[in-house]
Amino acid sequence: MRANKLILIVGVAVVMGLFSMAQVSQRETAPNPQPPDLLPSSTTRQIIKHNYYTLSYAERYEQAEWVAYWLKPNQGNANFKRPYFIADPKVSTHSADYKNYKNSGYDKGHLCAAADMKFSKGAFDETFYTSNISPQKHDFNDGIWNRLEEKSRYWASKHNGLYVVTGGILSGNLKTIGKEKVAVPDYFYKILLRGKPGNYKVIAFLVPHRDSKQPLYAFVVSVDALEKRTGIDFFPKLDDATENALEKRADYKDWSF
User: Fold this and answer.
1) DSSP 197-232
2) What angle do the packed helices 240-247 and 223-230 form, to 10 degrees?
């Protein structure tokens, strides 16, 4: 009896040990936590939280007004097969069908770039929800916007990660495509934040929707300027002094081009 009891105790200990290891492994491979203290405000009141990014969906324009996510310092270089674009199951008003883009002359431009999520297949696939795309001219998508995405990944590697907020400027009577009238923004923006509380550094870009050979720093603006264009409060939960100091700057001296 004693021997059987001892075997039982050892067995339970081994199982609990394996369970504990599994929990650690799960934590190590779990999706990035969304930082609620950094999420922007939503003018649409439809915030969608996915595993690896959060967005605010604008039904009127059939796309996100912003997508926010943590850009890892090492995105990975896996050659994942690109999945089909599908409707976002979490958007209650239904995200636009990818067929709106067919024969439109516009790319399905990722907001959270697929290349920013190559560290896992699940993260990569998640970028193919139609809530995460916006109509983009090919020479813009493959040109100046691609350069900015590549530079963002460079900074993420250099500074041990970045917090990214990006989207199109959705205002006014924009051109539309498809039966669902997906809006075509005239400008796209990207905000990058690095550092820790008390020592944040931020840079913001406003890029016209056309290709350009100009250097990226030519498109640097203040976060304040973007807030005036969008009506979005990008860092509403930071204390006022920190928020004001970050958002009024329109220089790039803390960033290496």
Assistant:
1) TTS-EEEEEEEESS---S-GGGGEE-HHHHHHHH--
2) 90
Residue owning tokens 């990207």? 190
What pLDDT does 35 receive?
Answer: 59
- Name 179's Cβ contacts closer than 8 Å, sequence gap at least 6: 100
Tokens at 179, concatenated: 């039966």
Q: Cα separation of 83 and 109, whole Å? A: 15
> Which are the catalytic amino acids?
110
Q: pLDDT at position 77, please? A: 84
List Cβ neighbours of 219 (8 Å cut-off, separation of 6 or more). 148, 205, 206, 207
The token pair at 241 is 């002094």
Q: What is the pLDDT of residues 105-127, one digit of tens each?
A: 999 999 999 999 999 999 999 99
Query: CA 107, CA 140: separation in Å to the nearest integer?
Result: 9
As a three-state string, the secondary structure of 81-128 is CCCCCECCCCCCCCCCCHHHHCCCCCEEEECCCHHHHCCCHHHHHHCC
For 129, the 3-state DSSP assignment is strand
End-to-end Cα, the chain, rounded Å: 73
- Model confidence pLDDT, tens digit, residues 28-53: 344 555 555 899 999 999 999 999 99
Amino acid letter, residue 240: D
Which of 49, 43, 60 minimizes the C-alpha distance to 90?
49
* Amino acid identity at 214: Q
pLDDT digits (tens, 9 = 90+) for 197-234: 889 999 999 999 999 999 999 999 999 999 999 999 99
